[in-house]
Amino acid sequence: MTNYISLLKNNDLKATIQRTSILKTIDHAGHINIDDIYDSVKEQYPTLSLATIYKNIIVMQENNVIIEVPLNGEKSKYELKKEEHMHLICEVCGEIKDTQITPATKEALVIENFRLKASQINLFGLCEKCQNA
Amino acid sequence: MTNYISLLKNNDLKATIQRTSILKTIDHAGHINIDDIYDSVKEQYPTLSLATIYKNIIVMQENNVIIEVPLNGEKSKYELKKEEHMHLICEVCGEIKDTQITPATKEALVIENFRLKASQINLFGLCEKCQNA
DNA sequence: ATAATTGCAAATTTTTTGCAGGTTC
DNA sequence: GAACCTGCAAAAAATTTGCAATTAT
Lengths: 133, 133
Fold this sequence. Notes:
By secondary structure, chain A is α+β, with helices and mostly antiparallel strands.
C-alpha cells in the first residue's frame, strides 16, 4: 500500500484527511470518475464536499500525483500517477486494466520528425472473463 | 473533397444544411471541439443553434460519421470517421496530426488474453515546426 | 503564526430536453 | 404526407468561485 501522506508531501501538497481519502479511493478503484470518488469518500467523511474534490483533482494533477484518463462518451476517470502504461478497456464489462508498454511497442512508436515525450494508449476489446462468458 | 450529402445518406441520416456544414467544418479543421464548430458554422448560418450541434454530434457518432477524440484537460474534439490511425499531438502548438498505424505497431499491440477490437493512440511531443523553432 | 485548505452557497458553464414550426425524402 | 429535424427557451447537470471558519506545518 502506498503511503498517501508522503506521496502528498513529496509533491508540495499538505496532507489533509480529504486528500488522503481521495487518494485511497482512487488507488483502490484503479480508475474512477469524480462522482464515484465523491460517493465513496462521503461514506467515511460525510461532510466532504464535491467542490473540495473538484479543487483537489485539479491541484493533484498539477502536482503530478494523479492523472486524468479521458474517455469517449463518459466522464474522465483518474488514476494514481505511475509508470507509463497502456489501458486495456473491456467493451463488455467496462473494466480498465493497466498493462506494460513493452520495448517492442516503444520501438514501433518511433515516428519520423516527431519528438515523442509521452504516450496515451487505450486498447478496446474483450477481457479474458468476457471472452469466456 | 468528401461529399457530405452522400456521407450522411449512406449512414441513414437526412442531409440537412446544418449537418453538411458541421461536417464541412470538422473536415476542414481536422480535429475541432463543439464550441469551435459552433463559432465556425454560425458565420455562414447565423440561426444555427448550439442545441442542434449537440444533437447532431450525438447522432453522427451513433451513425458512424464522426468520432470523438477525448483529451486531457479540455473538451473533446471530433473528427470525421476514417481508417484507424494515431494522433501526434504537439505539446507546444497543440496541433493534432493523423499518422498511420504501421503493421509493426499492430503487431506490438497483440496482448495475451485480450481480444483487441480497436485502439486509440495519442502521442504527445514536439512537431517538426516546434522542434526547429 | 502563517499560509493553505475546507465546506457551503451561489454563480457560471455545459449539456439536455420539449415542443411548435419547418424540412427532407 | 410521414417522419424527421431545427431553433428556441427552459431545465438539468457539471464545474467553478468567493469567503468565513478551520487545519497543517
